[in-house]
Structures are given as structure tokens and as C-alpha cells.
Known about the structure:
The structure holds two protein chains of two kinds.
Chain A: H1 2-31, H2 45-54, H3 61-73, H4 88-123, H5 128-142, H6 145-159, H7 171-201, H8 204-211, H9 216-253, H10 259-269, H11 272-300
Helix pairs in contact in A: 1-11, 4-5, 4-7, 4-9, 4-10, 4-11, 5-7, 6-7, 6-9, 7-9, 8-9, 9-10, 9-11, 10-11
Chain B: H1 10-23, H2 29-39, H3 41-58, H4 73-76, E1 86-87, H5 90-106, H6 112-126, H7 129-133, H8 141-152, E2 155-156, H9 170-206, H10 208-222, H11 226-237, H12 240-248, H13 253-264, H14 267-280, H15 284-291, H16 296-304, H17 309-332, H18 344-353, H19 362-390
Antiparallel strand pairs in B: 1-2
Amino acid sequence: MQVLTFLLKRFGWMIITVWIVFTVSFFLMRQIPGGPLNGERVLSEAVRARLEARYNLDAPISEQYFTHLWNTVRLDFGPSFKLQDYTVNEILAQGFPVSAALGILGMVFAITIGMTSGVVSAVRRNSAYDYSFMMMATLGIAIPNFVLAAMLIVIFVFNLQMFPAAGWGDLNQIILPAFCLGAPFAGYIARLTRTGMLEVLGNDYIRTAYAKGLSPRTVVMKHGLRGALLPVVSYLGPAIAGILTGSLVLERIFVIPGMGSHFIEAAIQRDYTLAMGALLTYTVLLFGMNTLVDLAYSIIDPRVKLE
Amino acid sequence: MPIPNQPPSELERLAAILQEAHDVHGVSLWADAWKRLKRNKAAMISLWSLLTIVLLAILTPLLPLQSPIYQDVKNRELLPPQWEGFSLGIKQYDEETARLIAEADLQVAGNAKHKELMTEVEAREQKHPINLYWNDPNFLTKPLISLRLLLFGDFCIPSIFGTDKLGRDVLSRVFWGSRISLACGFIATLVSLMIGVSYGAISGYMGGWVDNLMMRLVDVFYSIPFIFIVIFIMSFLSSPDVREVLQEYHIGQIHVFFLLIGAIYWLTMARVVRGQVISLKNEQFVEAAKTIGATRMQIVFRHLVPNVMGIVIVYLTLTIPAVIRFEAFLSFLGMGVEAPNISWGLLVNEGVQVITIIKTYWWMIAFSGMALATTLFALNFLGDGVRDALDPKLKNK
């Protein structure tokens, strides 16, 4: 019941957020001269009039706003301005699974690498492992992922020829971009896990667990990790926002046909409908993920109350 | 049997207390933090490297570098790092002009030959290499460039970082790029600081429905993927019509860009400041300020804000690298700094573009990427150090 009210409340806020984003971007699009129909080709009056009618650009702005809003509510983002014969929905439906696969794999990389090295660092505190892992974590946080990607491409693609340079389709092509995407977050997660773990390992119940004869492995993995998980889970919200941003860049470098590439392309070409569709999708995605993270947080730590 | 000491007289006792007070120095929060920071080796190394980087960036026009924008595709396209010298050729150019003037002086003033020579001299003045070598120097860089020409003349450091696909010197581009990247970090952080601190302080101090509304708004902003909105806005700003309007007001696209980045990085700052202000606003010094008739704005900005500066600085150390990275991100995507301006993100982008299967022009990425990574690395370490120094409770978080 509590969960239900929480979800309903969140849903209400999501509607408001999406509406704000919609309104701001709509008026930005329409206020600024040099709309999507002002390409390099000069259009004749008749053609322009037909095009404006097709894209509903000739109506008064208030009417355009409400039509567009209504269409958006029905999840119909309209035809793309620049990619002929495609609707925005079709383009998004094509790009979304690609971006999602990349993002999920990146996240998996980040969590596995980050948590493992964090736990090892905490258990072997002040050892060579600890120092080198934490050094690497700071490096991962500091180096922007596109710099990392460029360096890895030079090394692994051109010098060692282990991976293909770009493209999408088989597993070999996804490893490098997913790794670059996950690296900074692996760094953060490693640091958070280490700190959380160190705090937990000093607690009395850990001593009790040792005292009753559990093996160190069980103590660390079962009793310690659960407590150390909290800061990591609360970091997942910002991490997801970061993954969305990061995939924007990496899709561009590795020529991956995901939503990010489409969005950048749309912004450069001023393909308003597509840009708006992608923007709203990203907003919903971010909001939904944040809600999920909050929910997960309250499940892991029953002391946390859903507000 | 030793005679027990006389109990000290009142005067002596007071003198002793006074002496003790003299010996003990009060340690301010800042002095204490500085002492702790000094003990942190990694943070101090980072601090010194950052100071060096900033100083080099400021003094870039003074250094004997090649031109960051002069193109020579024919002779210098994508040269690998090398030690071969390069001359600006200004001295020779000036000498030739001087020769022409001398020749003109030999002619009778007003005759055809004289006129011809003088127009040529004028044309040469206009085509002077200085105008080609530096992109529209402003009142700050111009004197430095003149001084550089005075000090070093035609000498430049050879292209030890190689050249790019238009034959421009990468070393000097990395140096000039640092100016914009660091300026962005500075300006955008300042903007975010101003918005975040005032927003948080006002929200926290007002309380009630104002606070509620303002914080709900922050919650909403948290779920907006701002990078996409910035890209959206930047793509509008780059349309010719908008650019014309901006130019009328003498605003470059880059200024808007800086402000825009600052304007989206204040959310966490606002939340933190609000929390601090709420915990401070019932303290006695606020009460005291109220009794002498301070207005609400005065209380917030004169009495409360200075007291939250510690935590503000802690969050600043997080904001600066984030902002620099964000700038690099957007410039990399071609949505931020635009030519002829240079930033590190832009340079990395140029480097990525020339990666081919046939040949890797590694120097195009390596040096700009390293400059960016080193700066961010140092900022991160310094940030960790400052956080530990200012707030020992936060250690390792």
C-alpha cells in the first residue's frame, strides 16, 4: 500500500517534469527563427506552405502547442523532419534497444569491477592491492570516457587488433564501448564500496559473526556486503544519468546507431520532432530509473521510509 | 624541610593567565584546514601542478609558442612530433617592409612609383603575419603577445607535439586550449556558486511554503537530463539568425555556453546550503542581527552565507572538475566551443576524427587528452584533500 502511494506520487511528479521539459523545449523550438524548413535548399512558396501544413507549422502557436501536447500524450511524436518517411516513434524504437543494451552492459561492467575491487581494497586495507585499486579508481573518475575510448581504440583496435573499430551487431563490437562507458562509474563504485565496507567491518555484529566461527568469506560476502551496498545503491541514480550522458558520446565515437546518435544528429540538423521525442524519452527514463533506485533502497534498508 | 611556596599573589596569577593566553594562539577553521591539507602529499602535489597549469595558461601568449591557428596544409600536414625549428618570419617580413619604405623614400613624393610603393607597404601592413597568427587578440592578450615578440622575436618552440591535419602546431593549441577549458571551469563554477548559494540560502531561511516550492522545483530539475537540453539550446544558438542577434550585443556563443553550464550545476549546492542554513537560522547571532533591524536579505547574505562557506568550498571542489569535464564533453560533440576558439575537448575531437586504420596519428589525441586527464586528476585529488581537511568527519566519503 505504501509502495503504491509512493509510486502514484512519483508518477504525478513525473508528469509535471515531462510537461515542463515539453513546454520549455516546445517554445524554444518555435521562438527561434530558422526553423527546420530553412535548409540550404530554397523552397518555393507553394512547397513551403504544403510542408508547413504537413508539419502543422501554419497554425497559431497556441493551437500548435495543444495539438503537439495531445499527440505527445498519445505517445505519437509525429514524423521526423529530416529523415524522410520515418516517424519519430520508429526511429526511437530502433535506437532504444541498442542504447539500452550498451547502457546495461556498461552498468554491469561498472558494478562488477567496482564492487569487486572495492571489497578487496577494504578487506586488504592499506595493502598494495588497496593502493593500486584506489589509484585506478581515481584515474577512471578523472579521465573523461571519450579520452579513454580514443586511447583504447589506438591500443586495442589498431595496434593489437583485438577488437573491431566501430559498428554494432556482434559481441566483440560492444565490449570496448561498454567498458569505456562503465569505467568512471566503476571508479566511483569502488570508492563507495570500500568506504561503506570499512565502516561496516568495524561493527559489533561483524565481530559476533567471526566469533561464532563463520569463515571470513561468509562474513565479508554475507554480512559485510549487505551493509556496504547502501551507498552504492544510492549512487546508482546519478550513475544512470551519467550513463545516459556517456552513451551519447560513446555512440558517436564507436558509430553505434543508438538513441544518442540520433539525438545529436537531430540537434545538429534541427530535426525538432526527433530531438523532442528523444529528450522526452530520456526524461522519462531518468525519472523512472531514479524511482526504481529509491524503491530498491527501501527494500535493502528497511529503516528507510518511502516519502 | 623546604618552605612551601607562597601562594601567588593576585597580580602574579593574572599575569600567568595573560602569559598563557599569549602563548596559545587561536586556530581558525581555515588555518586548521590548511595545516591538515599541507600534510596530505597527494593533495599538495596536485595543488602545485594545478597552480603551474593555471599560470602557464595565463601566460600562454607570452610563451615562445607557434601560432595556434596558422595553417600550412601543404608543408606541415600531420607531422609527427619533431625537433625541427620553426620561425615566425615576422622579422624578415618587417625588414622587407622597411626596405620598401626606404625605397619609397628615395622616390620623389607624389610620383607614380612612390604611390605604388606606398600602397604596397600599406597592403603589407594589413597582411602582417601578426593578424594571421593570433585570433583577434583582446586587450589582455595583445600586450602579452607584443611582449613575447619583443622577448623572443621569431623564435618558437618546435612542434614537439606534432601538427594537426591543417598543419597547425599541436603544442601551442594545447596551451591555448587550456585557457578556454580553465576559464570555463572558473566562470561556470562561479555562476553555479552564485545561483546555488543564493537559492539554497533563501529557500532555507524563508522556510514554509516558499521552501517547499523551491525544493520541489529542485527535485524536478534533478530528473531532467540537462546535457540534452544544453545540446538543444546550443544547436539553436549556432543558427545564423540567433548568432547575428547575439553579435549585436557583443555576446559570443562561448559566453552563453559558459553561463549555461554554470546554470545547470547548482542543484546539489543549493540543497547542501539549504540544509546548513536551516541548522543555523535559529542561532543567536541571527537573533542579534534581527534585533538591530537587519533586513531578511541582509541576514541571509551577510550573516548566514559566510557561515556556510566551508561546506560550499567542499562542494566547489566537486563542481570544478565536473564543469570542465562537461565542457569537454560538449565541445567533443561539436556542441560547445567552436573554431576559431580552442578547448581541450575540441582538440580530442579533432584527434578522434583523424584516427584511421592506415595510420594512427596518436599525437593528436595523446597530448590534449593527457592535458585534460592530468588537470581533472589533480583537481580530483585536491578536492579529496580539501574535503578531508575542511571536514574530517567526511573523510573518505
